[in-house]
Amino acid sequence: MSKLASNLQIDTARLWSTIHDTATFGGTPKGGVRRLTLSAEDKQVRDWFRQALEQAGCEVHVDTLGNMFGLRRGRDMSKPPIGLGSHLDTQPTGGKFDGILGSLAALEVVRTLNDAGIETELPLCVANWTNEEGSRYAPAMMGSAAYVGDFTPEDILARKDIDGISVAEALDAIGYRGDTPLGAQKFTSFVELHIEQGPILEAENKTIGVVDSGQGVLWYDGKITGFESHAGSTPMQLRRDALGALSEIVLAVERIATELGPKAVGTIGEAVIARPSRNVIPGEIAFTIDMRSAEASIMDSLDKNVRAAAVEIAARRKVEIALDLVWRIEPTHFDPKLIDAVQTAASDLGYSHRRITSGAGHDSCNLATMMPAAMIFVPCKDGVSHNELEDAKEADCGAGANVLLHTVLALAGVAK
Amino acid sequence: MSKLASNLQIDTARLWSTIHDTATFGGTPKGGVRRLTLSAEDKQVRDWFRQALEQAGCEVHVDTLGNMFGLRRGRDMSKPPIGLGSHLDTQPTGGKFDGILGSLAALEVVRTLNDAGIETELPLCVANWTNEEGSRYAPAMMGSAAYVGDFTPEDILARKDIDGISVAEALDAIGYRGDTPLGAQKFTSFVELHIEQGPILEAENKTIGVVDSGQGVLWYDGKITGFESHAGSTPMQLRRDALGALSEIVLAVERIATELGPKAVGTIGEAVIARPSRNVIPGEIAFTIDMRSAEASIMDSLDKNVRAAAVEIAARRKVEIALDLVWRIEPTHFDPKLIDAVQTAASDLGYSHRRITSGAGHDSCNLATMMPAAMIFVPCKDGVSHNELEDAKEADCGAGANVLLHTVLALAGVAK
After folding, report:
1. CB-based contact B232 A361, cutoff 8 Å
2. A329, A349, A367: which is the final residue of a domain?
3. Distance from CA of A36 to the nearest CA of B (A)
4. What is the CA radius of gyration of chain A?
């Protein structure tokens, strides 16, 4: 690689200003962004992104599901491009960085290469995946999931939001139902920069997370059936309190995940008492469990141990506990060569870094089932995401974009 | 007392049929009763009750808050009557016995005395107290609470239900805003028959509960503030999970009440996660605590121990826990002479019996603050109440009414 290329740095100030400029599309008074997929605000940012890519010399095309691709030609057009990017949609009360950083950093990489007059061997292709968030349409990571064949385009196009508007109608309404057949844009490999959405990098004062895996997920729907009775007149020893049983399950999930840690987490995020009343012992509770690990064997242990705990608690407390596994996705193992490329780029650039597991799902977790893929994380403030308070430092965003640049250069090669 | 009077028995079959006849006013398909206070169904049962009392020779009058009184004259009208009765309103999905048994047994006592041609020395007064349940209007035991001066009639009349209808409007709508000033109907003493609403009598195979006390009540509103974060990307040791903290409080309340038992109970009946989501660690939970004991010193210990537990849990888990005591009522100690009268009646009639504490609040707990009062309990199936499945045996209801009859005769005296 030429000295020019190996010393190349993205323009952090330019990246930072694109982040803040585009944050006005759906910007909220609290400094967040509300940009639901395929909304008017999503059209605004998509139009801006298309124009910026075209001005940077990319050929932009859009597939059936609105996934956007900006191709920067390489010397060797016989091979599929190196993909880079993320998503531009947000949660209903989302922040300025989740997804957006990865998409705008990909644009910044192209701009930086243009400014330096660098041609890559392989072509590059900047991507903006449709509906990563899943807030308006299920499932989350919709565009990439369909891209890798988890869903047919017909299935996805027919899905409706809460107002009965289908994906097809929403795409047509903003002019983003493209001509490119789903899956026609191939990639040699794909690299995604993203904020961590967790507290680890910040806590350890590391700039770059070299993401080597994504957690598998176990989702359960649970129901506890005890016996509703009078809070005043039912002695303690004659109770069959559904909330007492739930409390033991909550603490069991916490203990099981901790014991199987550090590569395991477990959460009860929803718990609803049926017919709640201040002076009635809860008789029925519906709840969810979310357990994750990057290792399939740990996922098996999580599943086994939580089921055993539920059986023991139910028997001792004389309640019924039903646990229904509603979703299991296996862990993602990112490509070792790409992981090395990310780590080498971080090292060469002098950034502190550590291997990290992605706790959340990402488009690249879907893409990794079909092609070599990798991810780069940068810290976000207090680990907060999916929140208008989501924040990240300019220097960290710039560092992440530099790692993205040099990972892509390593994968694509420099022609001149 | 004449042999006729001392051998007198109520007509159990007649009592049983009035219970089932009136259960059609608001009867539900599952065999329960939905008869919210001052509703159209409440008017139906009130009209029926007024007519039945009048046909039994009582002078019926109604006070400002709809409390109904049916006076059966005695030989000595210079003294206030012996009161007997309960309430006819039900929970939204209530049963056929809660309150209703005591009201209809009071009517049955009058009918039995009429049939036997017995005049009492003191007059009797059958009462139906407005809104014991508190389901439509707060507070519960509204009519009796205002009667003893805990609330002004103006305050109560202005209270509104969930549809914005005031008590005054509801009373006018069904024609039960009466002329009798609140508190004008005096009593020498008051006796109330009620189902236990708990499992003790059934578990010990006793027919009659001689109620010597009513539990005091501590009600708290609680709030836990942790930190909402991503279920996938937040390591276990960096969480501030509000539901984990709640679970420890639930188990602490259970343990504290059990340790201070058997004369103590503690319940968390409501717990609501703010912005619940399957993949978000709960950051905020509102909850209630209900703790009760018939002994003031135990109530003090319950209060002290639960506050200490909350402080310890909050510090260890790095969450905030606010506990706000919103209601404290002291234990009720029923009148020793009236308790003896109930116990003597049960013994003389040959019914198995035991002293018992009322776990629930009752109109008689309010009345006991102003006059000698007592209660009689009979078993209910599985201790279930506030439920369409609420059930009681015909023989037990008849036994309770007989104890009511002979307690009232002992208190009122027999003229002829």
Report:
1. yes
2. A329
3. 18
4. 23
